[in-house]
Amino acid sequence: MHQEQQASSLDTLREIRTIMERSARLLSLSGWSGIWAGLVALAGSAIAYVWLQTAGPGTFEPAAYTPMEHATARDTGINNLLLLALVVFLVALAGGYYFTYRKNKKQGISIWNSASRKMIVSMMIPIAAAALLILVFLYQGDLQYVVPVCLILYGMALFNGSRYTISDIRYLGILEIILGCIALFVSGWVWSLYLWAFGFGVLHILYGIIMWRKYDQQ
Question: Which residues make Cβ contacts (< 8 Å) with residue 31, sequence separation at least 6?
């Protein structure tokens, strides 16, 4: 009788612990969110590669050194890249939200709570800083700094957000930061774009597959 009561008490404690954990942090993001984001990033990288490949010589030189005949092409190219980046971000975000919402709905968990709000705030600070720096670098023609800033500050955003969701994304964040640091020493937009595609595309897909097998299948 005593053993049955003890077992019942342990089950109750486990239930309480589970409820507390769920209220303290946002449940795991769907692995499909990472896969979707990676596929969208690879598609965006391919489009950017074509645009940059077909741009005229000197189009993306620093603004002070851009020949007058390339100034219009430079401004148009920068605007196209910014629009492409915005579309990629919004499409990836929408898909990530959809897959995570669908997963949490099946589990009966609300996706919008205090933990998710804290997660958004902690992630948006580095992302907002990255957006400002990218605008400055693009309009100065300093493309070599755009990819490192994207990767490093996005990695910091993931690391910050890991406090409110599954801790596994901190490792993805660390990898993004390391990749961004490597990009600082890479010259040429081709290799920079490859690193961007690897960081936002390949790593996201690998992360999504691992998270799907680790959490979504349970």
Answer: 207, 208, 209, 210, 211, 212, 213, 214, 215, 216
